Amino acid sequence: MNSPSFSQAEFYTFSHVIHGLVDTSQERLSDFLNRKSESTIQVYDVQISRILSMGKSELLKSDEVRLEKQSILFANPIERDLNVKSFYRRMVRQIFPIFVLLPYYELVGSVHLTEKLEIRRVLLSRPEMFIPLTDVTATFSLNPSVQFRRNTIVFNKNLMIMIGSQMPVEKPSGTTEDVNQSR
């Protein structure tokens, strides 16, 4: 049996953020979450906060909890999620900017694929339940001023509402720059 290899991670559900340690056996968080043999994960040294009152209410704490994988909207490794296997995977893939809508969250980041981006195939051809994104901005859609950046976020494609390729943002007409240029 492998010796424990604990990593810090955050797990976002519909209503809570669970922060704690998981035994990933030196795998990337996405590989750990995509193990088909288990429908739950064990999290240790747990701190739980309510999304709608983060920082305003007392944290729930526990030594150990079981978390249903199907209830995880997305997760992020707190520590750098790199090992020899993940470095190789990044070297042979192309990077595409995408956005993902989940219940209560909007994710904008990059997906790493071995071939041209075809949105239909991103979901259908990948057997994994959790898909990693890099350089991600996550926005809480009920309060868009709540926004954070992460190096890696692993989202649950089974809870996804929508996915699309990200186009460059155009400035809306009538901005100060447009008015000054027209004078």
Give a structural overview:
The structure is a single chain. The chain is globular and about 50 Å long. The chain is mainly beta. 14% of the residues lie in helices and 45% in strands. The C terminus is likely disordered. A hairpin with a 6-residue loop joins strand 8 and strand 9. Strands 4-3-2-1-5-9-8-7-6-10 form a 10-stranded antiparallel sheet. The longest helix is centred in the middle third of the chain and has 8 residues. The chain contains 4 helices and 10 strands.
Average per-residue pLDDT, rounded, comes to 82
Oligomer kind = single chain
End-to-end distance? 73 Å
Q: What share of residues is helical?
A: 10-25%
In total, the number of strands is: 10
Strand order of the largest sheet: 4-3-2-1-5-9-8-7-6-10
- Helix count, DSSP H or I runs of 4 or more residues: 4
Radius of gyration over all CA atoms, rounded: 18 Å
Can you tell me the residue ranges where pLDDT is under 50 for at least 5 consecutive residues? 83-90, 176-183
Structural class: mainly beta
Largest sheet entry:
10 strands, antiparallel
The secondary-structure element order is EEHEEEHEEHEEEH
Mass-distribution shape? globular
Strand proportion: 35-45%
Short description:
The protein has 4 helices and 10 strands.
State the main characteristics:
45% strand; 183 residues; globular; 4 helices; 10-stranded antiparallel beta sheet; disordered C terminus; 10 strands; mainly beta
